[in-house]
Amino acid sequence: MTESKGFNRVATVILAVLVVITLMPVALIIIASLTEESALVRNGYSYFPESWSLDAYYYMVKQGAVIVRAYGVSFFVTVVGTVVSVLLTTMLAYPMSRKAFKYRNALTFFVFFTMLFNGGIVPSYIMWTRFFHIKNTIWALLLPNYLVTAFNVILVKNYYTNSIPDSLIEAAQIDGANEFTIFSKIMLPLAVPTVATISLFTGLCYWNDWTNGLYYVDNEKYYSIQLLLIKIMNNIQALKSNSTAALLGTGQVELPGTSVRMAMAFIGIVPILIIYPFVQKYLIRGVVVGAVKG
After folding, report:
1. Using CA atoms, how far apart are residues 111 and 117, in angstroms rounded to an integer?
2. Is 0.85 topped by the overall pTM?
3. Which of 137, 138, 188, 260 is in Cβ range 3.0-4.6 Å of 56 for a Cys bridge?
4. For the chain, first and last CA: distance in Å?
5. Which residue has the higher pLDDT, 183 or 283?
6. Is residue 52 helix, strand or coil?
7. 279 pLDDT more than 70
């Protein structure tokens, strides 16, 4: 009993140290966003800056309407994309997990093959813009790259195979359940850990994505928060490097380029920091069980 208490104390201390180490970069981002630009340029990043400033957030407030709209786009794309992705992924994994399905091996190989090879950026761009005409539409942020991924499909398929006994499915069939009933009433409810896991993976991909917007979106109405932050950062850099910036003064006025970058990073990760604790308890179980070879 004493050894157990001693182990718990040591484990608690080690985990607390790891938590602090993990949070230190986030704290540095927040502090840097509140540091005066000249101090950042002169001294670099520091947990104890010599001067504080809210200039970065004042600049962000001036862009408030645009940022709110971009947040709305990102939330819509993340929620809709995650829900549709989870639905398609779990439905595709279901026949792959059923031993009675004649073509399960061929379907599994087809899905796995896409993990190893793809057409590349240029063919994908041509396909999405010329044949599907998604350029400058909300579909450009939803369809390419993240809607269905082979890794998630195989993760769910292995979870079905390893965690849900065939006898349960056979009992449902004896009771007259069809395939849709088995999927919706048995497989999906029992796969909550892996569904939560792929939801987190997919949601993170959609929230952090800026490449789809960069390739397929020119209309500001469809800018996601990540793409908007990049555009704002590029505008600041252009102003700072442009010769007309001299009109701002003789060193008395300085655009908060570095601190704005940190403020943008903080704004981008806040929703993830809020959501993650609610799905974290399912994450380890879903990954470990789903990663076991079926």
Report:
1. 11
2. no
3. 260
4. 39
5. 183
6. strand
7. no
- Please tell me the distance from the alpha carbon of residue 203 to that of residue 79, in angstroms, as a whole number: 7
Handedness of CA 212, 216, 222, 228 (dihedral sign): positive
Sign of the C-alpha dihedral, residues 142, 148, 152, 157?
A: positive
How far apart (Å, rounded) are the C-alpha atoms in residues 136 and 82?
21
Beta partners for residue 52, in sequence order: 35
Q: Give alpha helix (H) positions in 1-120.
A: 2-33, 37-43, 55-62, 64-97, 104-116
Query: Whole-angstrom Cα distance, residue 272 to residue 80?
Result: 16
Query: Three-state SS for 123?
Result: helix
What average pLDDT does this structure show over 2-12? 78
10 Å CB burial of residue 246 (0-12, 13-18, 19+) is exposed
Which residues have CB under 8 Å from 77's CB, separation 6+?
138, 141, 142, 206, 224
Contact 180, 55 (CB under 8 A): no
Nearest-5° angle of CA 262, CA 217, CA 115?
85
45-75: pLDDT as tens digits: 888 888 888 888 887 787 778 888 888 999 9
Q: Which residue has the tokens 């879903």?
A: 286
What is the average per-residue pLDDT within 185-189? 88
Nearest to 232 by CA among 70, 78, 45, 42: 70
Contact 149, 118 (CB under 8 A): no
From the number of C-beta atoms within 10 Å of its C-beta (0-12, 13-18, 19+), residue 24 rates as exposed
CA 158/CA 293 separation, integer angstroms: 6
d(CA 48, CA 69): 34
Q: What is the CA radius of gyration of the chain?
A: 24
